[in-house]
Amino acid sequence: MKKILVTYAVQDEFVPITVNGCEMRYIHTGIGKTRSAMNLTKALCEDLPDLVLNMGTSGSHKHSVGDIFVCRRFIDRDYETVRLPGIDYEIDLTAIHQETQTMQHWLSANGSVGTCNTGDSFVTEITSMDGDVVDMEAFAQAVVCQEFQIPFISVKYITDIIGQNSVKHWEDKLSDARKGLELWFSDK
């Protein structure tokens, strides 16, 4: 039986899901790249899963509240702005791992395949950043999974539009996000 480790940053994002033929395990990683990477690394060392699924909320500056994105490309916006030599600020996991049947199903489902832009700040103003959605954990988790050679995918529900009272909208939309993600995964 395959093991899927589901990560989520805050308790209010937690959604239990079922995937046929898979044992589901969950880890509350906490907010931010460092805490998320540390908690995921610890979990991977204790119990090596076949796949890591990051699930949660995000903001966007070009899509709508309620949209769901399946991300396999990740950008670290903190490093993207400085672009120092030798520091990778972008990871594209599309070609580095074999597609599992579960991932193929999610990628062909009713979400959009996109790019997640990660940084250690809650984005409240529109900037010239690349990506479909923004969060505070996915890039770090993608790095950890890449190092452990474990397939990684991130499914994000857009809760807020950057520049439109993002923090308040995120808080108000957490319940909608849980319901939306639960429905999205139950349809798979």
Low-confidence stretches: none
Query: Count the helices. How many?
Result: 5
Shape: globular
Largest sheet: 8 strands, mixed
Mean pLDDT: 86
Provide the β-strand percentage band. 25-35%
SSE class: alpha/beta
* Number of DSSP strand runs: 8
Note down, in words, how this protein is organized:
This protein is an alpha/beta fold and 188 residues long. Strands 1, 2, 3, 4, 5, 6, 7 and 8 form an eight-stranded mixed beta sheet that branches. Helix 1 packs parallel to helix 4. 40% of the residues are buried. The mean pLDDT is 86.
Characteristics of this structure?
single chain; 188 residues; alpha/beta; eight-stranded mixed sheet; 5 helices; 8 strands; 30% helix
Topology:
Blueprint: E1 2-8, E2 22-28, H1 33-46, E3 51-60, E4 68-76, H2 77-80, E5 90-92, H3 101-107, E6 112-118, E7 133-135, H4 138-148, E8 152-161, H5 166-186
Brief synopsis:
The chain has 188 residues and is an alpha/beta fold. The protein has 5 helices and 8 strands, in the order E-E-H-E-E-H-E-H-E-E-H-E-H.
